[in-house]
Every structure is written in structure tokens, then in C-alpha cells.
Amino acid sequence: MTWHASPSLLRGYRTKDPTLRADAVWAVEVHLETCADCRAGLAAEVGPDPLLDQVWAALDLDHEPAPAPRRRWRWLATWATPAMVPWLATTALVTVIAFLADLVGSTSVSLALLLAPITPVAGVAAAWARGIDPAHEIVAATPRAGLYLILRRTLAVLVVLIPLLALTTWTSPVRWLLPCLVFTVATLALGGFVGVRRAAAGLLAAWSVFVVAPSLLIASPPAVLEPSALVGWAAALLLCATVVRLRADVYMRLDR
Amino acid sequence: MSTEEELLRLVAKGDRAAFEQLYRRTAPWLTVRLRRRCADDQLVAEVLQETYLAVWRAAGGFAGAAADGSAVGWLWTIAARRLVDAFRRRAREATPLATAPIAPAAEDDALSEVVGDEVGVALSRLAPELRQVLHAMVVDGLTVRETATLLGVPEGTVKTRARRARIAMREALS
């Protein structure tokens, strides 16, 4: 800050000197907000003021409770809501149990692999669902609501779950990563039409009935999780992402 | 010598000495700025007291330098809104500073240390009531409704004057 207000300028500012040019007043006022030295200069210029002592005496801090403490993890609330935590925890628990079941070798097919694609669905549903999140209506009314917010929360879900999945499945991520993303985006896409909870429930049921159950019965890995099926998954991801992008304003309204 | 932001962080932890130091450092400036907008000293005293009480209670809520804000700016935000509230409470009794027409001193370069560029000149040539509205909305950061309460004019007048001020500035600068 190379320019500072001169004492005469400060005096003119303080005494509301009418001959002081308007842009001078403007400049001084904006400058005082940023320059501590000039504020001190102004204070020296003003001198002792009985008003200040009067106000200080009236400020009775003895009867005031201590100020509310700074919330240290406030930034975390911008990425995930408290309502999402139980769902993420349950999903993580299910994943760990599947991992342990695989260790024991109870099924011939890797249960963790079978369940991997649908893991984020519950977390995504909790990110934007009417019944699950008590603050849903309030959040939906804020200007922040919309595709950006829901994608941010979805990212939080993925960041938590994908490392866990990488640890619990032994096969390479190639098999389940793309299906995982497809299910995440599909929950959002379908949720825009029928409501996120119903979409999540439907997708979970469909995957369980059509892929998990037959695979366990026949005792062989499902065809949809083979590396050759990746092209189909990529196409599905593109389709769902397009749907989500085109219907972006649905996420600014209340969930069905 | 710690900055106001550091003092505010200490106040958030309940440090009364820091609060007193913050008061001693910022209250003189705040008083001068408030007095420029309000002729009634008692009202200024009320607003000061409410402001610093709010600072004590809500010091933890100041986002801090991380959010690219200054403690003093935050203080002014609180004080400006308290002033507007006080005006609303005492609707007619506290009159704002009367708009004395500024003597045509555009060619006066006695204050040559000031920004003498086109913006400054254009600002000086603006009609006083338009400049007042612009000052309240831009420098003080008040909304249309708050500006209307502060200056004691209807909201429609504020909007019209703001528009005229911007048009005049745009013409003067083009």
C-alpha cells in the first residue's frame, strides 16, 4: 500500500468537511478499511472520546456467556451431510463382511466383487433423498442446490468407498470400477424420473435378482463383470451422464 | 503487534484482553464512519454497543483470512446493518447527514494527493443524492432496502437514483 491518507485528509474526513471532494472521501473510506496505520492515525487525530469510554463501560461482558467456539470441521459439511454417514457406514460394513466371507471361502464366486458395483448406490441415495435427509427441503430451497451440490456429495461417497473396495476385492479395479460409476450416475439419472430412493431400491433389487443371485446359484462369475463387457458399461455411463446433464434442473427441486 | 484477524481469533476463544485491544483499535475509526452517516450521537453509541456485543458473541463465526475477508470489513458489515436496524426502529427521529451541496471544487487541486483520475472526477461531478446512494450501495455494501432505510427515502427512489448514477458514471467515463 503505497498511498496513505495525509493527516489533513483524515481531519477533513472526520470533521465532515464539505469542501472535501467526493472521490477523496470515497478513497479515504475504502482505504481505511484496509490500512491499520491510517486507522491508528485517525484515532490519534480524534483523540480521547468520552463516547468510546461510555460505550466500553456499557459493554457488560461479565453477564455475557463465552463466545461460541469456531467449528473446526465446518468445511466437511460442504461435502457431505450427517444423514449420509449411517448409510456410508452400513455400506462399508457390508463390504467388509463380504470380504471376510470371501476369505473364509464360503462361496466360490467372490461376493465382494459381486457387490462392488452397487456399493455407492445407498450413499448416493442418502445424498439427495426426501425421507432420509431431514434437511432435504431446506437444502432444496437454497441457491446452492442443483447438480453441482449433488455431484459434490456423490464425489464424497465415491472417495470414501472406492479405496475400501480396492482393498476388499482382489481382482483388479478394471472389473468393478466402471460398473460402480455407472450405477452411481444411473441412480441419479433414474432418480430424476422416479425419485432417488425408488431408483436406488430398484437398482439394488435388479442387480441382486439378475446378477448376484444367478451368479451364486450357478457358482461362476457373471458375464457382465468380465473385461469384455466394459464397452457396454462405458456406453451405459455415457447415456446416464447425458441424461443427468440434460435434466440438471430436476435436482434443484424437491425429490419426488 | 497482532493484526485484527489474530485478535478476532483470540476473542473467539474468549480472550477479554484481546477484545479490549480490538475495541481500542477499531472503535475510533468505526465511530467516525458511523458519525458520517448519522447525526445522532446517542444512536451512534447504541449501534457501537450492539456491534461490539455481536462481535463478542459471533467471533467464532468469522470465516477468517482463509475466506479472503478482513476482520475490519466484517466489523463494518455488522455495524452497517445495526445502523440500518436502528434507523428502522427510530424511523423519523434520527436524521442522516443532510446532503450539503458540494461546492464546485472539481478544479481544486489543493488535495492533489488524492486519486485525480477520470473516475474520481466523474464521481465528484455526480449529483450529491446520486452519489449518496452509490456510496451506500458500493462502499458500505448495503442492499436496496437497507439503503432506503439509511437515507430515509423510498426503495423505488433508491433504485432510480442508483440507475441514474450508473448511467451518469458510464457516460462520464466513456
Structural class of chain B: mainly alpha
What fraction, in percent, of the residue positions of chain A are helical?
55-70%
What's the rounded overall pLDDT mean of chain A?
87
Approximately how much helix is present in the residues of chain B?
Answer: 55-70%
Number of domains of chain B: 2
Which sequence of SSEs, written as H and E, runs from N to C of chain B?
A: HHHHHHHH
What share of residues are in beta strands of chain B? Answer: under 5%
Major sheet size, sense and barrel closure of chain B:
none
Instruction: Write down the domain tally of chain A.
Output: 2
Distance between the termini of chain B: 45 Å
Name the CATH architecture of the largest domain in chain B.
Orthogonal Bundle
* The CATH superfamily title of the largest domain in chain B: RNA polymerase sigma factor, region 2, helix turn helix motif
- Globally, the shape of chain A reads elongated
CATH T-level fold name of the largest domain in chain B: Rna Polymerase Sigma Factor, Chain: A
Number of helices of chain B: 8
Strand content of chain A: under 5%
| Oligomeric state | heterodimer
Order of helices and strands of chain A: HHHHHHHHHHHH
Fill in the keyword field for this structure.
heterodimer, A: 256 residues, mainly alpha, 2 domains, 65% helix, B: mainly alpha, Rna Polymerase Sigma Factor, Chain: A, Arc Repressor Mutant, subunit A
SSE layout and pairing:
The complex is a heterodimer of chains A (256) and B (174).
Chain A (H helix, E strand, L loop, with lengths): L6 H8 L7 H13 L1 H11 L3 H9 L25 H21 L6 H5 L3 H9 L8 H6 L5 H22 L4 H22 L1 H23 L11 H17 L10
Chain B lengths: L3 H9 L3 H20 L5 H18 L12 H19 L28 H8 L2 H12 L4 H8 L3 H19 L1
Question: Could you walk me through the main structural features you see in this protein, from its secondary elements to its overall organization?
Answer:
- The complex is a heterodimer of chains A (256) and B (174).
- Chain A has twelve helices and no strands.
- Chain A is mostly helical.
- Chain A has two domains: 7-56, no CATH class; 75-252.
- The longest helix of chain A has 23 residues, at 196-218.
- Helix content of chain B is 65%, strand content 0%.
- Chain B has eight helices and no strands.
- Chain B is globular and about 50 Å long.
- Residues 98-114 of chain B have low confidence and may be disordered.
- The interface between A and B is large, with 43 and 59 residues.
